[in-house]
Amino acid sequence: MMDNGDLILENQAARPVAWLRDARIAQRDNLVLQGVELVVWPGDFFYLVGRVGSGKTSLIETLTGQIPLAGGEGEVCGYSLQNLTPSQIPYLRRHLGIVFQDFKLLTDRTVEKNLSFALRATGWKRKLDVERRIHEVLEQVGLTTKAYKMPNQLSGGEQQRVAIARALLNDP
Q1: Most exposed residue of 51, 77, 124, 142, measured as fewest CB within 10 angstroms of its CB?
Q2: pTM
Q3: E-strand spans in the chain?
Q4: Dihedral sign, CA of 113, 115, 116, 120?
Q5: What is the DSSP string of 10-60?
Q6: Domains delineated in the chain
């Protein structure tokens, strides 16, 4: 049994995907959030809402390793946020599925090439595996007929579904 303060973990199956305790989050030298307490369990959907400048993006950037945890404790997918090294960040991100508000699609590539880029960036090598996985996620979001379209040829809702497909690629 592992004891993380109030969070007692008896086995790997009961382990949260992410947790923060008394976290401090800063952008450069500017403290953005303090005293953050968070637990996200497998299967949870995690939404952040708040005013502009309230720290939503900074929190997500901390959880994905883009900015270091300024204080407190935290873990995401088994990676300690206090001790996260730059070389570990790509491995951490392979376990996460994030749908960005502005979708962040590569505008010079088709839907298929956007998804292929994401898979190859996370270590997928075999062409047949990449093609199979892309077909699976496009089927899940109902976009199999849009694989060869450019992002600007899609509606906003279709672009959002491509972003969801990208988030699902590595079975987060």
Answers
A1: 51
A2: 0.76
A3: 2-4, 7-9, 18-27, 30-40, 69-76, 79-80
A4: positive
A5: -SGGG--SEEEEEEEEEETTEEEEEEEEEEE-TT--------TTSSHHHHH
A6: 2-93 (3.40.50.300), 111-168 (no CATH)
